Sequence to fold (458 residues):
Amino acid sequence: MSTQNFNLPDVGEGLTEAEIVAWKVAPGDTVAINDVICEIETAKSLVELPSPHAGVVGELLAAEGATVEVGSPIITFVTDARDDAGPGVIATAEAPAPEEGGGSVLVGYGTGGGATSRRKRAAERPVRSSVGVIAKPPIRKLARDLGVDLTKVSPSGADGEVTRDDVMNHAQQASVFRNIETPEWGQVREETVPVPQNASAGLARGLSPAPASTPASDSRPAGDDSRTESIPVKGVRKATSSAMVQSAYSAPHVTVWKDVDATRTMELVKRLKASPDYADIRVSPLLIVARAVIWAARRTPMVNAAWIETESGAEIAVRHYVNLGIAAATPRGLLVPNIKDAQDLSMKDLARALNRLTVTAREGKTSPADQQGGTITITNIGVFGMDAGTPIINPGEAGIVAMGTISQKPWVVDGEVRPRWVTTVAGSFDHRVIDGDGMSRFIADVASVLEEPALLVE
Fold:
């Protein structure tokens, strides 16, 4: 028997620290190689850490909620050296099992081919339930996580097997944003969010200077903390704040917007929803906006470019592909996953990709890889009832499009005022990369597609 320490690994995104969100094991538990031992939160995603050893859990060296530096020990195992097959393979919460001999690994621990092979074989064995549903174990886990009853899913795989797409499409019938009751005002009138010490506290909090005198009825003893709450800045919030400050103060932002008659877009969405080809796919106006942005970016490539600082000077990288980012409000904060090579997708495939992206983001299981390499972003503020906004550009990009709410308003058509479905399309751009004529032409193109989606038929 031997005692083995397991150090927090770099899960493949160059992180320096992570928070222990939840332990899945306790001292005395028996674990096998690749059993999930804990869930960690990095600056970009939730990640499940598998056990690199088979044996008994000794001691948990980090508490839930603690932020741990990469390389620090987090758990000990009591193992039998003969049974310890070596390190395991890292798996993000939504990723399939890695292929044998490849995939992401616990950096510094190797690939552990034998363990990977067993995991792969287990993941590839379809399992038939007592009621006749055929699905692989990862698909069953996905269904459990999303609350999907597999007996109600229409299978599309070989021999009637339920696939990942089948589960995702079924789950997408529910809206990404759920209506909730508005909570009543609590007793706390103010929340304080810690900011870096070198920042101006007043400006960071957006507070006005304190008045010279305070009414007696509003006074309180010094050191009374019962009316305030401090929220540590870490994880996604820490990464988001850093990225937004970097973008806002390094890229000169310019925003333009245009009101649009989106009536024909709404008619197209209605027809797609009624089409048998889209029976298991959630369709929304965001799909048409996404196609419009891809179409317009091809006509004005500089909105899809990026400003790059190099040792020899600055460069503008013009991407001839679109990794389309979709800003998503999730329980963990703002995430911006992107759809790789969106320009190559058909309308139906793009709809499926949006379905997968939004469900995964809503469940808080977006992987780091899905948030890297974006070229242009859409933020759908219309779901919150907002008409327009001036969004901050995602770092590494030159443009972001904000889609406002679509509502019926009076609109002049052929000299007559009629009720039409109207929205506002706004876009912020890096003025170092693109000039006013280019950004205006791009937004006008997006608006043209929303007014006449037939432009997408080429």
Observations:
- The chain has three domains: 2-123, 125-171, 237-456.
- Confidence is low (pLDDT under 50) at residues 83-131, 173-186, 188-222.
- The CA atoms of residues 25 and 367 lie 23 Å apart.
